[in-house]
Design goal:
mainly alpha, 363 residues, 17 helices, single chain
């Protein structure tokens, strides 16, 4: 009898633990609220709302600017604009496809804990190791900000996460291969870009260890990597689609802006900047920030700026993947305005200095 009673009690326990279908008591309400909160917090990776407007602007604004600024130029100038624009887009698109596909695969199939296991425990040593990790982990700069935020949430020191944020889109194999193709016969340009970008990432990580303050950071809750209840291939497809459309939109805008810049800007203005070693480097660095070209494609834009020195074009390729308008916006939304302003300004200065040193020695 005692054994029978124990079995009866065990059988009734799960039923007692679950609320009845019509139970609307505090426990059931709390469970419902928790479920709704979990559903509300579950991120949905959707395309940005204003991308149709951006694509329309990419198709209309550069042509309008060319028409307004170059009414006196003939058909040859328009053909030159089309040639430069199409050349940049056609050359860069395969690398953009490869880079975003690999980035989506890493996001869907590689857990974030891999990074924490590989990094040294000492922050000063973790910074250069995280910077070197960018060599073997391809990704677009658009994805580097949420990945860095996720690493911080997993316990990685912010200095190492920021070093990875800067190095991954600048020195990964896809970017270096694209640079080698965009600058044929100039292997030192690839080496200079690798060294300048890697040193910039490490210096910024160490500067954060030295001068960074916790109150400058406002980490937002963002999830990267695999989410339970969702297929990995579905996440890969959504991530690839999102990253390619986002980066592709900026590629089109950058290609058209570069073509307009090459055709519509008077030659005297270009000569003023390109002929001065002191003005050409900051000019192309500022241009990289404004154009916001994807790192898989910026080498082709830089190679089209033939009137500038190799060091100035190197600065364009080093600054662009680390500081541009879209990255500043992403950093502001993720880490806060106080961080984005300070970090972007310091990164620009360090990247320009490293580019000048690397260009002066190697180019």
């Amino acid at each position: 009898m005692r054994r029978t009673d124990e079995l009866a009690v065990a059988a009734e326990a799960p039923a007692a633990a679950e609320p009845a279908a019509g139970d609307h008591g505090p426990a059931a309400a709390a469970a419902d609220d928790h479920g709704q909160a979990a559903g509300a917090d579950a991120p949905t990776r959707e395309l940005p709302r204003h991308w149709p407007l951006l694509l329309i602007a990419a198709a209309v604004l550069p042509g309008t600017a060319l028409f307004l600024l170059g009414q006196g130029v003939g058909k040859a100038a328009l053909q030159a604009w089309q040639t430069v624009c199409l050349a940049v887009v056609v050359q860069a698109t395969p690398f953009l496809l490869l880079g975003t596909a690999l980035s989506g695969a890493i996001n869907a199939f590689v857990p974030e804990r891999v990074f924490t296991r590989l990094l040294p425990k000492r922050p000063a040593l973790a910074v250069p190791v995280a910077g070197l990790a960018g060599v073997v982990l391809p990704g677009c700069e658009c994805a580097s900000v949420p990945v860095a935020n996720s690493l911080i949430g997993r316990g990685v020191t912010p200095a190492a996460a920021f070093a990875f944020l800067l190095s991954a889109p600048a020195i990964n194999p896809v970017v270096l291969t694209a640079t080698a193709i965009a600058f044929p016969g100039t292997p030192l340009m690839v080496l200079a870009r690798l060294l300048a970008s890697l040193v910039t990432a490490a210096v910024m990580g160490w500067l954060w260890l030295w001068l960074g303050r916790a109150e400058w950071l406002r980490p937002a809750v963002r999830h990267t990597g695999h989410q339970r209840g969702r297929g990995r291939w579905t996440e890969f497809r959504r991530g690839f689609q999102h990253d390619f459309l986002q980066a592709g939109g900026f590629l089109v805008v950058g290609a058209m802006a570069a073509a307009t810049f090459n055709v519509a800007v008077p030659r005297s203005v270009l000569d003023t900047f390109s002929g001065s070693p002191w003005l050409s480097v900051p000019f192309l660095a500022a241009l990289a920030i404004i154009l916001a070209v994807c790192s898989e494609a910026d080498a082709f834009v830089a190679s089209s700026l033939t009137g500038f020195s190799p060091t100035a074009r190197l600065a364009f390729m080093v600054v662009g993947p680390m500081v541009d308008l879209k990255l500043i916006a992403l950093q502001t939304g993720t880490f806060g305005r106080a961080f984005a302003i300070r970090f972007s300004a310091a990164t620009t200065v360090v990247a320009v200095l490293c580019s000048v040193l690397a260009g002066g020695v190697l180019l």
